[in-house]
Amino acid sequence: MRIDKLLANLGFGSRKEVKKLLKDGAVRVNDAVVKDPKVQVDPNKDLVTLNGETIEYKEFIYLMMNKPPGVLSATEDYAGETVIDLLEMEDQVYEPFPVGRLDKDTEGLLLITNDGQLAHRLLSPKKHVPKTYFAVIDGEVTESDIDAFGRGVTLDDGYETKPGQLKILKSGIRSDIELTITEGKFHQVKRMFEAVGKRVVYLKRISMGSLLLDETLELGEYRELTDEEVEMLRDYQVK
Ligand code: URA
What we know:
It contains seven helices and 13 strands. It is of the alpha+beta class. The protein has three domains: 3-54, Roll (Structural Genomics Hypothetical 15.5 Kd Protein In mrcA-pckA Intergenic Region, Chain A); 62-125 and 211-238, 2-Layer Sandwich (Alpha-Beta Plaits); 131-208, 2-Layer Sandwich (Alpha-Beta Plaits), CATH 3.30.70.1560. The strands form two sheets. Strands 5, 6, 7, 8, 9, 10, 11, 12 and 13 form a nine-stranded mixed β-sheet that branches. The protein has a four-stranded antiparallel β-sheet with strand order 2-1-3-4, with no helix packed on it. Strand 9 (165-170) and strand 10 (174-181) form a beta hairpin. Helix 1 (3-9) crosses helix 2. It is elongated and about 70 Å long. Residues 102-103, 106, 187-190, 203 line the site of uracil.
């Protein structure tokens, strides 16, 4: 990759600004000053410094966000704010995208990465990656709902869902539940509850495969996954 492109991609300025840094002798590659913007570097092998500071470059970025309500799980939206808009510029330069979608009003675990292969595997319907949601339901959730979800329910468009595992945490006129599903149909959790005559009033994703929402993240905050979390996701096999 050209040195000017690398530095511009990493957010060190426009191509023009980066050319000026090069011309000023601020950039070294493997300890030799490089002034030519066309010089090719391998960011994974070459040591690049800017004003003596080592430039960190990684091919992939893996972020966990606690998605706030009111923000879209998309990379671009001309009408509203997206989860990508919430990222620092130094993370946006890796051009990450959200892995799957949460509704605008849904909160919780959202994986954001530029690793297309991993995203593809996690989203593949063949992999049946379980996703667990915490929800507040308007209505009393009962054992018969557990049975119905365990068999699979019929959604409004006639689609028969795969079995879902429903756990009642608190039952009453408002119930707290956890639901684990292995599919990702549009509005799936909300529509599964509609299928049993109940309404979701609050929805938050708490896990996806082996990845658990870091509860220390405030809404809208995010952090990089640990190496261990990335490895666990890569190796994730549904048992
Ligand atoms: N199911 C829904 O209904 N909404 C979401 O955002 C995720 C799962």
